[in-house]
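step 3/5: co-fold with adenosine-5'-triphosphate
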Amino acid sequence: MRTIAIINLKGGVAKTTTAINMSIILSELHQKRVLLVDNDIQANASKFFNLHDYDKNGIENVFRNERVATKELIERTSYENMDMIPTNMNLDNAVSELMQEEGDQIGKLKKALKEVESEYDYCLIDCPPSIAMNVLNAIVAADDIIIPIKLDKHALDGMEELIDVIDELVTYNKNLENIMCLPVMTMKDEFVLAGEKLLRESNYRVFDTNIRYSVKVIGSTFQSCVGITEYSPRCSAAKDYKGLVEEYLRLVKDGE
Ligand SMILES: Nc1ncnc2c1ncn2[C@@H]1O[C@H](COP(=O)(O)OP(=O)(O)OP(=O)(O)O)[C@@H](O)[C@H]1O
Ligand SMILES: [Mg+2]
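step 4/5: write tokens
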């Protein structure tokens, strides 16, 4: 199983959109067995898959002292090859408790995912816009990190800090192979194009694929469980997300 953490300190930069659509495309179009982990108390991905439920176990259990077996946290989605570990606001408490704990604070998610590594080809972790303890756990668990970047004036704010945090955690994560930026919500606007040029000329690694801005993406959020490739197969963002997954599979040399 290969684990992809989708992170950025900034909010509203398509982390959840990317996690959901990459998961659906990997499972539906590439027949990969996918586990999507919702690691954000906002629970946008859990709500999208109708799995937001305070009576159910969720990712919070990974961070609590009295551990539950990982397979007990997994829910089926409406997609055949795709399961999910959902979340809810209880995650907030679990993360606060974790910060008071002695001993291993950042390796809990990695350890939990190891229990189910033979069940899946890919695990995607949707993270909140922060570097809270649950995000550090995602960084430590990851083989690959994807940082979606919306190219506005503040696009690269926090990037240095984020890369510094990742660098510090590399000693705890010998598996981390790729840290890739993904330009999202791009459009033919002179400032956006200039921002993209700057990003591509920087020291950061950037996917060749851009995810273009498309109003259809916003529409798709109103339809539970329907990814952009099904909601509007011909829109630019659907084509771009398919291209992104192909580029990602080439990057990790998954010849299928
Ligand atoms: N390619 C796109 N074109 C147009 N709108 C988009 C695109 N990608 C994402 N959006 C919209 O941008 C908003 C933010 O997206 P999303 O919720 O995925 O961001 P996020 O980084 O997960 O946010 P948060 O930090 O709050 O978790 C949503 O309304 C989403 O529909
Ligand atoms: Mg989100």
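step 5/5: annotate
The two ends are 14 Å apart (CA to CA).
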